[in-house]
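hey m, so remember when u said the tokens were messed up on ur end? i reran from scratch. heres the input so u can diff it against urs
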Amino acid sequence: MRFSPTFLLVGGALALGSLPACQSRSSDSTSAGQPSASTTAAADTVVPASPNDGITARLIGSHIKVLASDEYQGRKPFTVGEQKTTAYLADEFKKLGLKPGPDGSYFQKVPLVEITGTPAPTMQISGGKQPFALNYKTDYMAFTEQEKEQVALTNSPLVFAGYGVVAPEYGWNDYAGLDVKGKTVVVLVNDPGNAGNDTTLFKGKAMTYYGRWMYKYEEAARQGAAGLLIIHDTKPAAYPWSVVQSSYSGAKLRNQTADKGASKCTIEGWITLDAAKKLFQAAGQEYDEAYAAANQKGFKARPLNLQVSTSIRNKLRRQESKNVVAVLPGTARPDEYIIYSAHWDHLGIGAPVAGDSIYNGAADNASGCAALLAIANAFQQAKEKPGRSIVFLAVTGEEQGLLGSMYYANHPLFPVKKTVADLNMDDLPNMGPMRDLTVIGYGQSELDEYARAAAQEQGRYIQPDQNADKGYFFRSDHFAFAHVGVPSLYASGTADSWIKGKAYAKKMSEEFEAQHYHQPSDEYNAQADYRGMEWDARLLYSVGRKLAGETTFPQWKSGSEFKALRDKSLAGR
């Protein structure tokens, strides 16, 4: 699923899974200084012939036609659509002669819990000269990942901890010398380099994982905090408060955990910028001064000398969904694995638009699953089989927050320390062949070089994501693998049509966002040009083949927030 902060407002309740999602198709058409980048529409519009490798536009289109049909009801987890989708994928893997997972099944059960939370109407603030209340939805949003019928904060001391970041590689620790057990931490959205004025901090305008709300909740829990509240500021957040409101209200699926979420903060949430300024004023402090201090190295967390009280009542429902997995065993190093991933789920049946209520998800993400099957076909028909094992993984629950891929990463069927890389496909554009290969998270790992070489084989050029400040690297299933240290590649042609140039690509991307993204009109189109998907699939196939023939493991680059995880994992290999 690709992220469009503007368009999410159209879908209303359908924005529920929006914040964890990945990037918009819309992008700046510049190449960020890449020397081989095309800057104008190409004069040569002759499209090179495709090799006979088993990856074809026709094959990809045929799979999309099935997966995005009305019969599959929008592929929502826990519906008939899930049953049909997972059965189709498993059957196709079987037809190709691929092996099931290590337990003899093509399915990995993914236990999920649906938590429907009803927060208290107000969040009570005490300890200042005059107690006051913040109002639910208007001033604050709150949820919990703890599987309890009710959770509460009662007179929990409030502490301002800057960005809530512990980043050893950047010499940054907002929790240094701070004991937050039983306390509620208030933090800024984004990270110091991205949100502040000093672009020498962290990765400057390119968001790091430390800027993601997911990280902030994780770190607060590791520190023992009872609660965490993120201050929403529209500019650094890159989406308005209305997106927070829609994303954190109603039923929400979570991965079940052995401790039923007990290791998570009791309450996680957001407050508006105005509410935050009100807190600081009640604490006798200036918000602007605190913000400026938080953007300086050596920042020290500070108590607000206020207490917060609020509660959430929950309805719980536990069910199982499925990841689909198939394996082509390696011939030389079968105990080392390259994973191809794509999410099979979409939004199901929802509010009718122009009389159509089935959100088919042809691009998002029948396209990725179709490419997954096409790549599997190429590996199977190749005369030379891969030295390393190739894993094909279609995951559930991406639209609800990367649930299937996160579950796999935490319950891997194949050892993480033996996993070479993840190559992810999500929402492949159907604009025909593309000259660019836009890499989300460019500069993170050595997989950039593999992608560049494969792109050059096709006569294409590579460019970084032109909206790196939005943190799109953290919004699709490849991130679940990065989260446990596995280098991950997420790339596709999005910005420069081989035949019609950049202006056309931009126009088509904007049209998709405005008219079809997360709408029933994202449907199979027999007249669509699926050659761009074919080229992207072939490029990733080429990357996988090269990785499969090597004995080394690609590494994260110096400065990546995932490098330490990988180094630790490989040390125990």
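this time it looks ok to me. The longest helix spans residues 362-381. if urs says something different then somethings off w ur setup not the seq
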